[in-house]
Specification:
By secondary structure, this protein is an alpha+beta fold. It has five domains: 145 residues, Galactose-binding domain-like (Jelly Rolls), CATH 2.60.120.260; 90 residues, Immunoglobulin-like; 278 residues, Alpha-Beta Barrel (TIM Barrel), CATH 3.20.20; 67 residues, Immunoglobulin-like (Sandwich); 103 residues, no CATH class. 19% of the residues lie in helices and 30% in strands. The chain contains twelve helices and 42 strands. The strands form eleven sheets. An eight-stranded parallel beta sheet has the order 31-30-29-28-27-26-25-32. A six-stranded antiparallel beta sheet has the order 3-2-4-10-7-8, with no helix packed on it. Strands 36-42-41-38-39 form a five-stranded mixed beta sheet, with no helix packed on it. Helix 1 packs parallel to helix 2 and helix 6 runs parallel beside helix 7. It starts with a strand and ends in an 8-residue tail after the last helix.
Length: 756
Amino acid sequence: MREILNLNTGWRFTKDYAQAPTVLDPEWELVDLPHSWNAVDGQDGGGDYFRGTCCYAKELSKAALPCADRYYLEIRGANSSADVYVDGKHLAHHDGGYSTWRVDVTQALAEASLLAVTVDNAPNQTVYPQMADFTFYGGLYRDVNLICVSESHFDLDYYGGPGIMVTPTVEGSNAQIEAQVFVTNQAEGQVIKYTLFDAAGNMIDTCISAETKAAFTIENAHLWHGRKDPYLYRISAELISGEKVLDNISTRFGCRFYEIDSDKGFILNGESYPLRGVSRHQDRWGFGNALLPEHHKEDMELICEVGATTIRLAHYQHDQYFYDLCDEYGQIIWAEIPYISQHMSTGRDNTISQMKELIIQNYNHPSIVVWGLSNEITMNGAGDPDLIENHNILNDLVHEMDKTRLTTIACISMCDMKEPYVQIPDTVSYNHYFGWYGGTTDMNGPWFDKFHETFPNKPIGISEYGCEALNWHTSDPKQGDYTEEYQAYYHEELIKQIAARPYLWATHVWNMFDFGADARNEGGENGQNHKGLMTFDRKYKKDAFFAYKAWLNPEPMVHLCGKRYIDRVEDVTKVTVYSNQPEVELFVNGASIGKQTHDGMPFFYFDVPNAGESTLTAVAGELKDESIIRKVDTFNEAYLLREKGAILNWFDVTTREGYLSLNDTMGLIMKTLRGKLLLLQFGAQIMSSMKKNKREGKSGGMGGSGMKLGSGVMAMLDGFTVLRASNMIGMVGATVTKEQLLKMNKRLNRIKKPTV
C-alpha cells in the first residue's frame, strides 16, 4: 500500500558549497520547507537579488522509512533547475521551476544516506522564464515528499503525473466517465478496482478489471457549475494482487461542458457565464514564493470576496493545492507555462516539457478551461519564424494531449492584431494598459471593438489591465501619479467598458495582489509591482477592490472610498461610494446631503462641503460605511509620491513656465523636433548602457536579459514622464545617472511646450 512521507522539516541549507555533500555540515543554516533564499532580497528593489546555485541537504535513515519496494523522491517545486544527489551520487536533473517531478532513489539509499538537492535560479538560455516583470525566487519552495510503493504501482515516472486521467463527457442529463490509469510493472493476475463516489463519499459504482481503462455512466449527473455549484465526484483506483492491495490512488473531477463563443463569450453547461476576474502571482511579502496552505486559502477567499468568476494563474504552473481550491470554490482557470517576454531559439525543448508537465499533472481539474501557450512573447517582434513554429508545435501538442480544452495566448499591447501569430490558438487575449502605460482609458473598449469587427469569429478577451496604486492621494488624480484615487478611477472606467461588451470571452485584472518584481524601483516602494487590488501582505484592500466587489459580488455592500485621504484643501471635495444597492444616501456629520440611485453601474459620486472635520456616512438600505475628512489650508505632502532611492524626484526638477522638463510626458516631448532628437539621444544612451551592463554581467533587469527599446515599447511609454521612465530604467538592464538627467532637463527647459 502506498505511503507518503513528508520531508519538509530539518534541512541544512547553504549558498556556499563546492560540490554535492557526502557528510552533513552542521554549520549550514537549518531550514524547514517551503523555503526561498530570495524571500527578502527578491522584494526590496534594485534588481540585485541573489541568483545562483544553492544546496539543501537532509539525512535519511532507511530504518525510519516505511517498508516498501520502491522509494520516489517527489519535489513539488524547485526554481528553476535542480539536481538530486544521494551520498554524493548524481541521480537526476530537472529544468522548470514550477512543476512536480520525481526521482527513483531506491537503489541509492543505504541504511543511512545523505540526500542533497541543488537548486539553481541563475540566468541561462534554455529554461523559461528568463525575462519577465516578476522575481524568479530560488528555492525548494513547495513540499518535498518520499513516496513509498510496491514494485507494481501506479505510475510515478511520467512527467510528474498523478497516474490517473479522468475524462467526463456530458450527454443529455447523463455523464459518461472514462477513467484511465497508468501502471508500472503490472504483473499477470494483478487487477484494478475502480470505484466511483459522489461528493458526499457515497459509492455510486465499482468494477474490477485487469484493463487500465474503465467506463462509468452517471445518470442525472450533478454538473460542476462554477461558483454557483462546484460539485465534485471522485474516482479511486486500487491495484490488487490476490487479496492484497498493492497501491491506491484517487482523484476528484467535475462533469461540465463549455464553449467560448466569439459573440456571446463564455458559456458553461449551456448557460451564459461571464468570466470576469483577476490574475494571481504565487508570492507574498516576507515569504517570497514559499507559501503555506493557509496563504493559498486566504488568497482564494479574497478572490471570491471580490466576486471573481475566473483566475488567470500567471505565469507558470501553480501549487496543486491551489488548483484543488479552484475546483472546490468553482473558479474558472486559465493555466499557462512561463513562455514569456523573450523567445529563445534554444528554449523550445523546455516549452514542450513544461507544457507536458502542466497538462499531465492538471488534466483532471474541472476548473481549468484553457491552456496558455505564452505571454507577451512578441516583445521583440512577432515575425520570428522560430517563434511562430514554436507556437504551432505547442498548439498542436496541447490539442493532441487534451481534446477537451482550448488554447489561448496573452498578447502584448503593441502586437498588431493582424499578425499571423495571433491566429494560432483557439482564443486570444490582450494585455492592454491604455490609461497607464500611455494612451487614455477610453481607448480600451474601441480597440476591442475593432478586433471583434476585424476577426468576428475569433474569441477575444483581456488578459491584463490595471494601474499601480500605493498610499498616495489627490483630489485631482492623473495618469502615472500612483494614487489610490487614480487607480479607482481607472478601474471604474474599465468596468464600464467591459460591462458594455459581453463578447469578451474573459477579462482578468492585473493583478489581484501586489507582487515581487525586484527590478522595479518606482511608486515609492521598490521591488514590487503595485497594480494589485490588495497590498502584497494582504492587509489592505485598495478602493479598486471594492469597485469590483460592488460590480461582481451580489452580496449587499457599501464602501466609502478615500479612507486614507483625510486632509483636503478644497472647499468642496468629491467623494465616491461603491455599492450594489439601488440607492445610496450620504450624510455629513449626521445631515443628509442627498441620495443617488443606481444607473447601471455601482458607482455613486457626491460633492461634499469640506469645513473643519467631518464624519461621512454612506447608507445603502441597512448597510452603512464611515470615513473622515478634514479641511486644511496646505496640501499634506505625506500624500504626495516620493520615489524611494529614485535618481531624482519630481521636486528636484527645475521647471520653467511654458517650457518642457523631465516632468513632461515623452509623448508631449516627441511632438517637438528638438525634443524628439533629445529623446532619441537619450534612447541611444540607454541602449549603450544596456550593452555595457550586459558585458559586465550587470543586466539584472527584467530577469537578466534586458528588453529591446523598439518602436512598440516606445509607444507604450508615451504616457510616461521622462522622470518616471528614468526610474524604471533598471527593468531593461540599463543605468542612468543624476547628472545625465539634470543635463537633459536643462536642455528641455529651453524648448517651448507644443500647443496641444
